[in-house]
Every structure is written in C-alpha cells, then in structure tokens.
Amino acid sequence: MAWALGWILGTPALGALGLTWRAAAWGVAATVPLLIAMHLVADLPWEPLRRLSREIEETVAPLFAGCPPLALALVSLAAGVGEEALFRGVIQTALGEAVHPAVGLLGASLLFGLTHLVTPTYALLAGVLGLYLGAITMATGNLLPAIVAHALYDFVALVYWTGRGRPAAEPGQ
C-alpha cells in the first residue's frame, strides 16, 4: 500500500531512508521511552489501561502464542517497515509538502491512531506513538530511526505479551 500510494502521490515510500549506523542507534535509543510506556500500560491501575491490557491479553497474545522468536521478529520488522513507509514515508511527507510539515505530522498520526482502533485507548496511544515516530523522522530527516524503534518495540512487546501470564517453567525443564 505504501509503495502504491507513494507512486500515486509522487512520494517514494522510502525516499527519506538513510541506512546509517547513527540512524539505527537513534532508533534503538528511541525505543526506550516506548518500552517504559508499555510497562506503564501493563501495570498502572487506571481502568482504561486495564481494559487495554485485558484486550491485548485476550486477542493479541493468543494470536502469537507459540510463535518462535524469529517469527515474531519478522512480523515486527514487516510492521515497522510497512507502517513507517506508509504513515511517515508517504502520508506525513506528502501532507507536509502539500500543506505544512505540522499538518503532515498531525494527519499521519491521526490516521495511524485510527488504523489501530482496537479500543479507543489503544487508538489514542497509537496516535501519540505516531506523533513520536513522526517527530523523530522530522528531527533526523531519516525514516530509519522510526522503522527501528517501531520494529524493535513491536518485537519486545510481542515477546512480553505472549509470555505474560504464562506459568513459569518448573526447575529442570
């Protein structure tokens, strides 16, 4: 979808992708606040977050339960590349060039949130995530930090949520 929309709009999906170690390191560093936020979502006693945690435990976790880490990594990489190419690479860039960079950031983040409408809370958090990833893309002028942060976060989150609530292995197993 990113490549097709990018072709239609004349905005290459990965046009702002620069494969550098520095950009990759920015992406890894940008993952830390996301993981802290995930921990808060999982453990804060605020009811909308508790509902979101239950929804993830009941829908997402069973969907990926039993998947080997490599499969989780590939799914995470596909989401990181595909979603960042579409939302930051095409939509944010095209809106930003057509109207204003702030409109691109806000529009792409709103659409990102709406496409993650599992619950209203999840959509809101995804929209905030979109703002964060879009701001990183704007600040660095490179799509790679957002791709790395998105993919790495998704991987750690999938590993965490698929293992949460699973009984610990017996000693010797």
Polypeptide structure, described:
The chain is mostly helical and 173 residues long. The chain is built from 7 helices and no strands. It has helices at 2-9, 21-43, 47-64, 69-98, 101-115, 120-140, 144-163. The radius of gyration is 17 Å and the shape is globular.
Features:
single chain; 173 residues; mainly alpha; 7 helices; 78% helix; 0% strand
SSE layout and pairing:
Layout: H1 2-9, H2 21-43, H3 47-64, H4 69-98, H5 101-115, H6 120-140, H7 144-163
Element-level helix/strand string: HHHHHHH
Measured as a percent range, the helix fraction is: over 70%
Morphology call: globular
Oligomer: single chain
* Contiguous runs where pLDDT drops below 50 for at least 5 residues: 167-173
Number of helices: 7
- Average the pLDDT over all residues and give the rounded result: 92
End-to-end distance, in Å?
Answer: 45 Å
Major sheet summary line: none
Strand content: under 5%
Radius of gyration based on Cα positions:
17 Å
The tally of strands reads 0
Report the structural category.
mainly alpha
